[in-house]
Every structure is written in structure tokens, then in C-alpha cells.
Amino acid sequence: MAKNTDAPKSLASARKVPTILATGVFVIICGLIAFPLVAGLIGSFRPGSEIVSQGLSIDLSKPLILDNYRALFAKFFPAGMDDASIVGSNNYFMWYKNSLVLTITTVVLTLLVCYFVAYGLTMYKFKLQGFLFFMVIATMSVPFEILMLPLYQEVTTLGLINTNAGVFLPGLCAASTIFFFRQYMMSLPKELLDAARVDGCTEYGIAVKIMMPVTKPAFASMAILCAMGSWNNMLWPMMVFRDTSKFTLQIGLNTLLTPYGNNYALLISGSMFGIIPILIVYLIFNQYLVDGMTSGAVKG
User: Fold this and answer.
1) Domains (ranges, CATH) in the chain?
2) What is the rounded CA–CA span in Å between residue 182 and residue 118?
């Protein structure tokens, strides 16, 4: 009897249709996500007056210029630049440095504090353990806008207004980061702790020398998310900081738009240049991102 070869072909064709549709949907989504970034990048090579009158676009028919970036780096290359551009460049890199210092401090301290809290809630058994974890998770359901005024009063009472500590201390023990670390640690075998104790390792040594290296993917994933949150945060730092010299990049760029004048040239080029730190963090830790996001999903 002759074999029917049309069935496998029709089955393969039927499988290709969902794949093509899914690919098309993802291409459209990626295009929508990438459009603002591409438009902003192209706009950074256009005159500020053109951005005001015509807005951002991806039209490449007009010539691209470097005037915006010359104004941005006027601090380092002042030849031929006016005083306003040099002052604007000085302020920009001062804000840039403030954001870098604040972001690095916030990420390092947040990861350490949340790791040890999650370690205690996961690796030890004690009374009210479940209740304490529930209280941690419950704080995730409270919007920041509700906590904003009490936190501001607390920071004012402690005398931390206009300091970096006033910005990062209220969010140092982040519930979402604790939850992520705990879920990741639950997938790790508890035999690691028992074996370390048998070898005479202290509890501190177990947490730092044994468990911390094992949770490297979780640290990498949370480092990316914490860095993005801190770098892009504007509302809370704007409430805490008073002096222009302490402004972060997000607050500083916002001050470029005033009723008395708008420096769109520095704003658009500075915004694009401000993406670089987060991009570097992602490129460094992206190899651990998927592992860190998925390891805690399956307990084993």
C-alpha cells in the first residue's frame, strides 16, 4: 500500500502558522518598545528648536548634527562653547556623579540587607516565622504614595533631609527583593547547611561563604532591578534633596524645563547618555538574569 505523505506535510504546515503568528506579534511588540528609544536617539542629533516645533521622530531624511553632544561635553571641551553650555555641562556631570554614587550605595546595601533577611526567614525555623514573612509581603500591597508623607516626616525627624541616607534608608529593606531571595533560597538543598555545620563552619560563615556564592544568580537579577529603580527614581529624591549640588540626574534634567527657558539640546542628549550605566549593568549581569528569575520557580 502507498503511504500517505500529505498528512505529515499538512501537520508541519499547521504548526508553522502559530509560530509565524507568534513571531509577528513579538516583532510588533519589540517595535513598539524600541520606537521611543530610537526616536530619542535620533532626536539627540537634531537641534533643540526642531524638537520643540516638530517633536521626536525617526525621520532620517534630515542631516544629523553633533551640537547637542558638544553642549553636553562642553565641560571637557570648552573651546568654542559659550558660558551657558559650559555651566550646563558642569551641572549635568555633577548630577550624573550624584546618581552614580546614590545608585551604587543603594544597590549594595539593599542586596545585603534583603539577602540576610531572606536568609533568616528561609533557613531557620522559629515562632512567628510565617507571620513575619506575611507582614513583609503585605507591605508590597501598600502604594508608595500612602507611605510618602509618613516617611518624609520620619526622615525630617531623624535630620536626614538633603542627604543620601534620607533617600536610600527608607527603601533599604525592599519587600519584593526579600521575597525574590526567599523564593530562590527555597529551591536550594538544606543539606548544604548541615554539611557546613558538620565541618565546623559558623552560622555567619555559612551565610557568607556557602550560601551567598550559590545565590549569585539571584544577586545579579536583583542588582539589575534595584539599579534601574534607583537610577530612574525621581519623586522621593526630589522630596529629600534641597541643594542643587545634591540633585540626581533625573531631578537635574527636569530642572532644564522651566517657564523662562527650555534647554532641549542638553535634555535630549543628556537623557540618552544617562542610559549607559543601566545598559552596562545589564550587560554585566544578564547571563545570570534568566537563571535567577526561573530557579526559584521550581523547588527541588
Assistant:
1) 6-72 (no CATH), 83-295 (1.10.3720.10)
2) 5
